């Protein structure tokens, strides 16, 4: 089977890297500038979330209604503030990620299923030094607020590959893989431990990319 028939889709935050607060800060700054209202982002849980849903949550909390012009302005500003923040405080790539991507990219196509809008996903990978491993194929936080639908769109854009794995660190990633017939791989880098991710029904659970022998065997690399 050729590499074009096989895809590994990856989540970004909590799976490949830790943004060290840059994403949260950018969200708050872009919201205040676009909607004219300062917001406290401390209570927002980004684990498994999507940018569209976080924006909807903030608007509801502030008793604001969606406004096409302001919404567009927000999504223009978000990557600007993110780029600025990550230039000052680069993201931390989790141990073993570079080695993993280098190894599997020789045999599989790599894409994304991430709650980040496409522009922010690109920036996070760029600042982490990981962009070269990934194709442009994926499902993103500006495609849909529902991660399950984002994953379905990623598969459609990839031409419905014969084999597809979805790597993530949250129950939402496990569900998106299951709903769309992908092999779910849960990585214990984020907020959720092995027991929780196993209980969610992940096909493979690895403690880190440094302890991923089972995953390498499943990928046959």
Q: How would you describe what is shown here?
A:
The protein is of the alpha/beta class. It has helices at residues 22-35, 51-61, 68-88, 97-104, 118-128, 147-157, 171-179, 194-199, 213-219; strands at 6-10, 17-18, 92-93, 109-113, 138-139, 163-168, 183-187, 204-206. The chain folds into two domains: 3-19 and 92-219, HAD superfamily/HAD-like (Rossmann fold, 3-Layer(aba) Sandwich); 22-88. Strand 7, helix 8 and strand 8 (204-206) form a beta-alpha-beta unit. Helix 1 (22-35) runs antiparallel to helix 3 and helix 6 crosses helix 7 (171-179). 47% of the residues are buried.
Relevant terms:
221 residues; alpha/beta; Rossmann fold; 2 domains; 6-stranded parallel sheet; two-stranded antiparallel ribbon; globular
Question: Which secondary structure elements does this structure contain, and how are they paired or packed?
Answer:
Elements: E1 6-10, E2 17-18, H1 22-35, H2 51-61, H3 68-88, E3 92-93, H4 97-104, E4 109-113, H5 118-128, E5 138-139, H6 147-157, E6 163-168, H7 171-179, E7 183-187, H8 194-199, E8 204-206, H9 213-219
């Amino acid at each position: 089977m050729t590499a074009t028939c096989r895809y590994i889709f990856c989540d970004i935050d909590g799976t490949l890297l830790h943004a060290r607060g840059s994403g949260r800060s950018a969200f708050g700054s872009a919201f205040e500038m676009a909607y004219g209202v300062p917001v406290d982002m401390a209570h927002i849980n980004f684990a498994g979330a999507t940018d569209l849903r976080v924006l909807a949550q903030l608007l509801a909390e502030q008793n604001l209604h969606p406004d096409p012009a302001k919404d567009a302005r927000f999504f223009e500003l978000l990557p600007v503030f993110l780029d600025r923040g990550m230039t000052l405080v680069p993201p931390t790539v989790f141990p073993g990620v570079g080695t993993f991507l280098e190894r599997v990219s020789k045999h599989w196509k790599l894409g994304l299923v991430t709650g980040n809008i496409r522009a922010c996903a690109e920036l996070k990978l760029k600042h982490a030094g990981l962009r070269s491993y990934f194709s442009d194929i994926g499902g993103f936080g500006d495609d849909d607020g529902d991660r399950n639908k984002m994953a379905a769109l990623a598969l459609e854009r990839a031409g419905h590959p014969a084999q597809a794995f979805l790597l993530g660190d949250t129950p939402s990633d496990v569900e998106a893989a299951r709903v769309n017939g992908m092999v779910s791989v849960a990585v214990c880098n984020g907020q959720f431990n092995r027991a929780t991710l196993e209980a969610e029904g992940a096909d493979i659970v690895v403690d880190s990319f440094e302890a991923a022998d089972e995953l390498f065997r499943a990928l046959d690399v």
